[in-house]
Protein backbone atom coordinates (compact mmCIF):
# COMPACT_ATOMS: atom_id res chain seq x y z
CA UNK A 1 0.00 0.00 0.00
CA UNK A 2 1.14 3.53 -0.75
CA UNK A 3 -0.13 6.76 0.83
CA UNK A 4 -0.48 9.19 -2.08
CA UNK A 5 -1.52 12.76 -2.81
CA UNK A 6 -1.33 15.27 -5.65
CA UNK A 7 0.63 18.48 -5.15
CA UNK A 8 2.38 21.40 -6.78
CA UNK A 9 5.83 22.33 -5.53
CA UNK A 10 6.45 25.82 -4.18
CA UNK A 11 9.23 27.87 -5.76
CA UNK A 12 12.28 27.69 -3.49
CA UNK A 13 12.16 31.38 -2.56
CA UNK A 14 8.47 31.16 -1.60
CA UNK A 15 9.06 27.94 0.35
CA UNK A 16 12.02 29.41 2.23
CA UNK A 17 10.21 32.69 2.92
CA UNK A 18 7.17 30.86 4.32
CA UNK A 19 9.38 28.57 6.41
CA UNK A 20 11.23 31.59 7.81
CA UNK A 21 7.92 33.31 8.62
CA UNK A 22 6.90 30.21 10.59
CA UNK A 23 10.02 30.37 12.82
CA UNK A 24 8.35 32.50 15.49
CA UNK A 25 5.19 30.39 15.44
CA UNK A 26 7.23 27.18 15.79
CA UNK A 27 9.03 28.66 18.80
CA UNK A 28 5.83 29.79 20.52
CA UNK A 29 3.92 26.57 19.71
CA UNK A 30 6.43 23.70 19.93
CA UNK A 31 3.70 21.12 20.67
CA UNK A 32 2.52 21.22 17.05
CA UNK A 33 4.13 18.94 14.47
CA UNK A 34 5.54 21.50 12.03
CA UNK A 35 6.10 20.59 8.39
CA UNK A 36 9.77 20.68 7.36
CA UNK A 37 10.70 23.19 4.65
CA UNK A 38 11.42 20.52 2.03
CA UNK A 39 7.92 19.07 2.54
CA UNK A 40 5.94 22.29 2.07
CA UNK A 41 3.74 22.02 -1.03
CA UNK A 42 0.43 23.22 -2.43
CA UNK A 43 -2.00 20.36 -1.91
CA UNK A 44 -4.18 19.63 -4.93
CA UNK A 45 -5.83 16.46 -3.58
CA UNK A 46 -5.13 13.99 -0.79
CA UNK A 47 -5.92 10.46 -1.99
CA UNK A 48 -4.72 8.25 0.88
CA UNK A 49 -3.76 4.60 1.09
CA UNK A 50 -3.78 2.95 -2.32
CA UNK A 51 -2.77 -0.42 -3.72
CA UNK A 52 -0.57 -0.70 -6.83
CA UNK A 53 -3.50 -0.77 -9.29
CA UNK A 54 -5.11 2.26 -7.66
CA UNK A 55 -1.79 4.14 -7.77
CA UNK A 56 -1.56 3.43 -11.52
CA UNK A 57 -5.19 4.47 -11.99
CA UNK A 58 -4.61 7.72 -10.08
CA UNK A 59 -1.47 8.55 -12.07
CA UNK A 60 -3.42 8.04 -15.31
CA UNK A 61 -6.38 10.07 -14.00
CA UNK A 62 -4.18 13.00 -12.92
CA UNK A 63 -2.17 12.89 -16.16
CA UNK A 64 -5.44 13.44 -18.04
CA UNK A 65 -6.54 16.22 -15.67
CA UNK A 66 -3.16 17.94 -15.93
CA UNK A 67 -3.12 17.74 -19.73
CA UNK A 68 -6.58 19.32 -19.80
CA UNK A 69 -5.66 22.17 -17.41
CA UNK A 70 -3.83 25.39 -18.26
CA UNK A 71 -1.05 26.81 -16.07
CA UNK A 72 -2.35 29.39 -13.58
CA UNK A 73 -1.13 31.90 -11.00
CA UNK A 74 -1.13 31.35 -7.26
CA UNK A 75 0.04 33.22 -4.16
CA UNK A 76 -0.18 32.52 -0.46
CA UNK A 77 -2.34 34.82 1.64
CA UNK A 78 -4.43 34.08 4.68
CA UNK A 79 -4.68 30.98 6.84
CA UNK A 80 -7.09 28.37 8.07
CA UNK A 81 -7.54 24.98 9.69
CA UNK A 82 -9.13 21.64 8.99
CA UNK A 83 -11.74 20.73 10.05
CA UNK A 84 -12.44 24.05 11.86
CA UNK A 85 -10.26 26.69 13.50
CA UNK A 86 -11.68 26.03 16.96
CA UNK A 87 -11.23 22.24 16.70
CA UNK A 88 -8.34 21.80 14.36
CA UNK A 89 -6.00 19.01 13.34
CA UNK A 90 -4.28 20.87 10.48
CA UNK A 91 -3.03 24.48 10.23
CA UNK A 92 -2.52 25.79 6.71
CA UNK A 93 -1.45 28.82 4.70
CA UNK A 94 -4.27 29.64 2.29
CA UNK A 95 -3.57 29.95 -1.41
CA UNK A 96 -5.15 32.56 -3.63
CA UNK A 97 -5.81 31.04 -7.04
CA UNK A 98 -7.80 31.70 -10.17
CA UNK A 99 -10.91 29.82 -9.00
CA UNK A 100 -12.09 28.47 -12.39
CA UNK A 101 -8.58 27.18 -13.21
CA UNK A 102 -8.18 25.64 -9.76
CA UNK A 103 -11.61 23.97 -9.82
CA UNK A 104 -10.95 22.62 -13.31
CA UNK A 105 -7.74 20.97 -12.09
CA UNK A 106 -8.49 20.04 -8.47
CA UNK A 107 -12.26 19.67 -8.43
CA UNK A 108 -15.04 21.72 -6.84
CA UNK A 109 -14.50 20.62 -3.24
CA UNK A 110 -10.76 21.22 -2.85
CA UNK A 111 -9.41 24.08 -0.73
CA UNK A 112 -6.06 25.31 -2.13
CA UNK A 113 -3.63 25.29 0.78
CA UNK A 114 -0.15 24.56 2.11
CA UNK A 115 -0.22 22.50 5.29
CA UNK A 116 2.25 24.00 7.78
CA UNK A 117 1.48 22.11 11.02
CA UNK A 118 -0.59 19.28 12.49
CA UNK A 119 -1.89 18.50 15.97
CA UNK A 120 -2.26 15.11 17.58
CA UNK A 121 -5.55 16.08 19.21
CA UNK A 122 -8.26 18.52 18.18
CA UNK A 123 -7.10 21.99 19.26
CA UNK A 124 -8.31 25.57 19.13
CA UNK A 125 -5.83 27.26 16.77
CA UNK A 126 -7.71 30.55 16.39
CA UNK A 127 -4.74 32.64 17.58
CA UNK A 128 -2.33 30.85 15.28
CA UNK A 129 -4.62 31.36 12.30
CA UNK A 130 -4.71 35.08 13.06
CA UNK A 131 -0.91 35.21 13.27
CA UNK A 132 -0.33 33.18 10.09
CA UNK A 133 -2.98 35.15 8.18
CA UNK A 134 -0.61 38.14 8.14
CA UNK A 135 1.73 36.24 5.79
CA UNK A 136 1.58 36.73 2.03
CA UNK A 137 3.87 35.52 -0.74
CA UNK A 138 4.71 36.69 -4.21
CA UNK A 139 2.65 35.33 -7.08
CA UNK A 140 3.97 32.43 -9.17
CA UNK A 141 2.78 30.11 -11.94
CA UNK A 142 1.73 26.50 -11.41
CA UNK A 143 2.97 24.75 -14.55
CA UNK A 144 3.07 21.16 -13.29
CA UNK A 145 1.74 18.92 -10.57
CA UNK A 146 3.02 15.64 -9.18
CA UNK A 147 1.46 12.49 -7.83
CA UNK A 148 3.40 12.05 -4.60
CA UNK A 149 3.96 9.19 -2.19
CA UNK A 150 4.42 9.88 1.50
CA UNK A 151 6.49 7.70 3.80
CA UNK A 152 5.47 7.91 7.44
CA UNK A 153 7.60 6.21 10.06
CA UNK A 154 7.06 6.60 13.79
CA UNK A 155 9.66 8.91 15.30
CA UNK A 156 10.90 10.19 11.93
CA UNK A 157 9.86 13.16 9.82
CA UNK A 158 7.59 12.46 6.87
CA UNK A 159 9.34 11.94 3.56
CA UNK A 160 7.72 12.64 0.18
CA UNK A 161 8.69 11.17 -3.18
CA UNK A 162 7.25 12.10 -6.58
CA UNK A 163 5.81 9.10 -8.42
CA UNK A 164 4.99 11.07 -11.57
CA UNK A 165 5.47 14.72 -12.55
CA UNK A 166 2.71 15.95 -14.86
CA UNK A 167 2.92 19.18 -16.87
CA UNK A 168 -0.24 21.27 -17.16
CA UNK A 169 -1.75 21.82 -20.58
CA UNK A 170 0.39 19.46 -22.60
TrEMBL record:
Pfam families linked: LigT_PEase
Renumbered ranges of motif HXTX 2: 113-116
Documented EC number(s): 3.1.4.58
Active site, UniProt feature: 41, 113
Family matches, as SUPFAM superfamilies: LigT-like
Domain called Phosphoesterase HXTX: residue spans: 19-92
Catalytic activity entry: a 3'-end 2',3'-cyclophospho-ribonucleotide-RNA + H2O = a 3'-end 2'-phospho-ribonucleotide-RNA + H(+)
Enzyme class of the recorded protein, top EC level: hydrolase
Molecular function terms, GO-annotated: 2',3'-cyclic-nucleotide 3'-phosphodiesterase activity; RNA 2',3'-cyclic 3'-phosphodiesterase activity
Signal peptide bounds: none
Motif HXTX 1, chain ranges: 41-44
UniProt keywords, alphabetically: Hydrolase
Function, as annotated: Hydrolyzes RNA 2',3'-cyclic phosphodiester to an RNA 2'-phosphomonoester.
HAMAP family in alphabetical order: RNA_CPDase
Similarity comment: Belongs to the 2H phosphoesterase superfamily. ThpR family.
Protein name as it appears in the record: RNA 2',3'-cyclic phosphodiesterase
Amino acid sequence: MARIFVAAQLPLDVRDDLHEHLDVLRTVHPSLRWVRAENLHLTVRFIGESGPREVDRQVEHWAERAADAAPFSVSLSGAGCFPQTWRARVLYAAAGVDEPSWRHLAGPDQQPHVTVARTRELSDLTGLVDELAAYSSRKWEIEQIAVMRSFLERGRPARYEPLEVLPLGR
